[in-house]
Amino acid sequence: MTQLRTFDRWIMKMSRSCSLAVAILVFAGGWCLCAADVGEFTPCLQSFYRSWPPKGLEGTPICQRFNNQYRFATLYSRPRRSPWFSAYLYRPPVGKRPSANWKFEPQLTYPGADGNMIPFPPGPPDQNVMESQAVNLDYINSTYSRGHLNPSLHHQSHEDRSATFTLTNVVPQKAGSNDGPWEILEQTVNHTLSAYCLGDAYIVTGIIPYRTDDHWLKNHRVAVPEYMWSAYCCPKYNNSLPEELKNTFPTYAAIGRNDPNSTEEIVPVNKSAKTQFRGYDVRQMPLQTLEMYLKDRFNTVVSVFYELCSGSD
After folding, report:
1. In this structure, what CATH number is given to the domain that contains residue 117?
2. Which PANTHER family does the UniProt record give (predicted)?
3. pTM
4. Smaller CB count within 10 Å for the chain: N or C?
5. Across the chain, what does the average pLDDT equal?
6. CB crowding 46-71: b at 16 or more within 10 Å, else e
7. Which residues contact 7 (CB under 8 A, 6 or more apart)?
């Protein structure tokens, strides 16, 4: 991961004027890399509690834009052709789930391209797009589904929900997880936040890679995570919480298995689960415990929320 840019580094760059970055050019197109090599990122700071992105993880920041509006933030891994995490503001969903009209990020291919994500056109994928990111062909006839990090379920408007259907917000996820315990987690978070969160709720959902020997989709282009994780921060909430929810505010975290053959040191296996969901368990835990596991796997301190979501507003 040493070849990737750290969040701390690009946040510092973002605070400088664009004129200071004018000397940093993409030689093919002569484009200025102001804050990020995929366009402006500042509008997506609102996706983070206290405008403070997670610290410790490395990658390419993308401010996900759809129909000329910025929607959510992603930290993307170019070598893995998949995201490390996506971060967003939760909103109670309205209406039906949008159709899966999958999109790509043109700025990963051409830094000077328009900032809007683009639906994949019919026919074979553009070779330049294939070199820079995942395409639908990577998932066809694989044993993995397209697993949202930022789920459509956690957004209100039709456009915000549609914007989650970009492959830069997707990782290879087993159906036993995506259609089972992980889907239940997303629904549980939706019900909990809609009922008890009184202000903004900030969610970060990411992945944990294998400790050694990355796993890949069939064509060795897109890396497969061993686990998925998610955490929310709701600073203002209803104090009249049911007993079973008193440990889920202001923060909540969970890790889910994406490999039924993984060891049980992080997430135990429920042997009585239905066969199709067995080995894809999700374990709820305090935010500090999640960060402990992230530190162990990434070999660096990872901080998901500013002051563990305990800073005064």
Report:
1. 3.40.570.10
2. ENDONUCLEASE DOMAIN-CONTAINING 1 PROTEIN (PTHR21472:SF18), ENDONUCLEASE DOMAIN-CONTAINING 1 PROTEIN ENDOD1 (PTHR21472)
3. 0.88
4. C
5. 89
6. ebbbeebbbbbbbbbbbbbbbeeebb
7. 53, 54, 55, 56, 57, 58, 59, 61, 75
